[in-house]
TrEMBL record:
The keyword Transferase applies. The lineage of its organism: Bacteria, Bacillati, Actinomycetota, Actinomycetes, Pseudonocardiales. Gene3D superfamilies: Glucose-6-phosphate isomerase like protein, domain 1 (3.40.50.10490). Keywords: Aminotransferase, Repeat, Transferase. Residues 37-179, 202-340 form the SIS domain. PANTHER family: AMINOTRANSFERASE-RELATED, GLUCOSAMINE--FRUCTOSE-6-PHOSPHATE AMINOTRANSFERASE, ISOMERIZING. This is Glucosamine--fructose-6-phosphate aminotransferase (Isomerizing). One of its GO terms (molecular function) is glutamine-fructose-6-phosphate transaminase (isomerizing) activity. The keyword Transferase applies. SUPFAM superfamilies: SIS domain. Its EC number is 2.6.1.16. It is an enzyme of class 2 (transferase). Residues 331-350 are annotated as: Disordered.
Amino acid sequence: MTTVEGPQPGAHMAAEIAEQPAVLAALRERRSEIAGVAEAIAKHPPRFALLAARGSSDHAALYAKYLIEVLLGLPAGLVSPSTVTLYGAAPDLRDVLLVTVSQSGGSPDLVEFTEAARKQGARTVAVSNTPSSPLSAAAELAVDIGAGQEQAVAATKTYSATLLALYLLIDAVRGGKGADADGLGELAQQTLDRSAAGVQRAVDRYRFVNRVITAGRGYSYATALEASLKLAETSYLAARAYSGADLLHGPVAAIDGETAVLALTNRGKGGDAMRDVLDAVSGRGADVLAIGSAAADVPAALRIEVPPVAEELAPILDVLPAQSLALGLSLARGGDPDRPRGLNKVTKTR
């Protein structure tokens, strides 16, 4: 009798992590398509921007919030879809830009909110990995991140591609040509290759840890949130993410020698602002893993250095070793990150 075995645990997640350099390079080559959407936005400059998303896409939306406020000088906020879907609110959204971010484009609450926002006068843009999705149909404009089908439940290539798509879109709205993203695919490959040994050391060190804090400032706060989610959903760790500033406003009191801290620290203003944070958590005995282009310059037990890029692009590279760490820890702890318990690829909420 022949036994047909399925894929090894984590095979899909590992393959999709490895695909990211090619996905990012291909997306950079499609900048002109995204620039067309940006041109339509720029013709009617919005008063402010709103972003709607769930899960990993919510972290990408937070990244976009920083981009919009810093690069475009516009106020931006993350919406609560339930104000419309559950409570029936009808806010005045004339001259407002709504960017809805969803890898699947199938979440009913995001689709409903986008439809309602469009009726209320918003210029609506869908950023999705599924061009034929209900979300893309609901929005006036759409950006296809083009990451290809993702089989692992934990988002990896769709997340990094969403970040780059949002950067290219927002950069193009301000008249940029995406020059800082040139060669990003190659840098992503370097990041994966050069971080492999450091990731394995981190897996060995944190295999039995129960409590993890992730932290970052500025653009990197989104990576802290995404890293926390990946550790929680693949390894079932009690992981919490904080802005470095918020960490010092109370939660630092709970940090001790039993706490692992994954810190995102890069060259730039956000990374500079993390130095006091890391001094504080190191002083409380925390075991710090520093990831980023400035990892060598901060107090840490382990460091994973990432190639330097423009600060606003650093989250695209920094998340790669964080994803690999989540994969490695899940496998080391006897799990299968491709099939986290209780989770599905598409989560439908209202």
